[in-house]
Write a structure and sequence with these properties.
alpha+beta; 2 domains
Length: 340
């Protein structure tokens, strides 16, 4: 069996990572490790219920067909059906939390939706055995857990904590801590930067990410050569701040937000003044370009005119919006290679 199939085992067991082509939900935030310094959330149901998706049935049907075909090609579709799991109906959100000192693959994955524990257990056991790995049903911290070890891969611990919540992680210790928080514990984040940036994301956003500068720097050290230069540039920028968040909200339009955490509220206000000055300069330049070529640059004028800079305590927040009408104009102006 090809090595690529091994990676699908844990993915099928988690029934949602399959689609993470990922602010923070209330339950998911409660489960985040105390030393979390990066969190990525993909809010599938928010996107599916947005006006733009609901008003484009054909687009949604095409997307479903494409994903179904991918699952069929990978031999995964039959397992999803056996688990009685419909990705577009049963998965609400995917949250990936990376604690300080760990790599992304060692983080905690939290799935929120509707899950059938018994059927998931049967599918996980069948698929693991088929791939030549090992599967074990056990209890960790009083919770039912699946200990999945794909052939030649590290063990993954997966648990259905309730009909609405699943978790997956790489160690029993992480699993135990997550169960403790689920059963009434609270998250007491060690990073002040991370705590401050949490206020800049919400469950209403489609995709969001929070990261401290410290964890981005550590990731840069282990980045592959192809991505090293880009991450180094980002790290250099982040050295001027403690961390950042970014979010996209798809609803009637596309709302974009970027936030940076500084050490003091006064510093955030100082940066806000500088950024506002820069945005004003950009607006003037784009407006001048639009006078020379209105068709090409008018959409850019519409976008930059939506940019707003505010502060939230020690956070500097920049917001902007792209209407779908404006997005259509931008796409029309993009150079499309002519087929020979």
């Amino acid at each position: 069996m090809p090595l690529s199939r091994h990676y699908w085992i844990a993915a099928v067991c988690m029934l949602g990572v399959l689609a993470s082509a990922t602010g923070v939900q209330a339950q998911a935030m409660k489960l985040l490790p105390n030393d979390t310094e990066m969190v990525l959330t993909f809010n599938l149901q928010q996107i599916l219920k947005s006006d733009v998706v609901k008003s484009n049935d054909l687009l949604l049907k095409l997307l479903k067909q494409q994903i179904d075909q991918q699952f069929e090609d990978k031999g995964v579709k039959k397992y999803l059906e056996k688990a009685n799991f419909d990705l577009f109906k049963d998965l609400s959100s995917v949250t990936i939390a990376v604690p300080n000192g760990k790599e992304a693959k060692e983080g905690l994955i939290i799935l929120e939706g509707n899950f059938d524990a018994e059927k998931i257990e049967g599918v996980a056991a069948e698929l693991t055995k088929e791939a030549g790995g090992t599967f074990k049903v056990t209890k960790i911290a009083g919770a039912n857990a699946f200990e999945v070890t794909p052939k030649d891969e590290k063990t993954v611990y997966i648990g259905v904590l309730s009909k609405k919540t699943m978790i997956a992680c790489s160690t029993k210790a992480d699993f135990t801590e997550a169960v403790g928080r689920f059963n009434g514990g609270t998250a007491a984040f060690k990073s002040e930067t991370f705590k401050n940036l949490l206020s800049t994301v919400s469950a209403k956003q489609s995709i969001s990410i929070i990261a401290t500068s410290a964890i981005v720097e550590k990731m840069a050290e282990k980045a592959p050569e192809g991505a090293a230069d880009q991450i180094k540039i980002a790290t250099a920028v982040l050295k001027e701040m403690d961390g950042f968040s970014a979010a996209i909200t798809i609803d009637k339009n596309i709302d974009v937000q970027v936030a940076a955490n500084t050490k003091k509220a006064e510093k955030a206000k100082e940066y806000a003044g500088t950024v506002n000055f820069g945005i004003d300069a950009i607006k003037a330049k784009v407006a001048q370009m639009a006078k020379q070529d209105e068709q090409k640059f008018a959409p850019a004028v519409e976008v930059v005119n939506t940019l707003r800079v505010t502060t939230m305590g020690t956070n500097l927040v920049i917001r902007g919006q792209i209407t779908f009408e404006t997005l259509g104009k931008i796409l029309q102006n993009l150079p499309i290679p002519q087929q020979q």
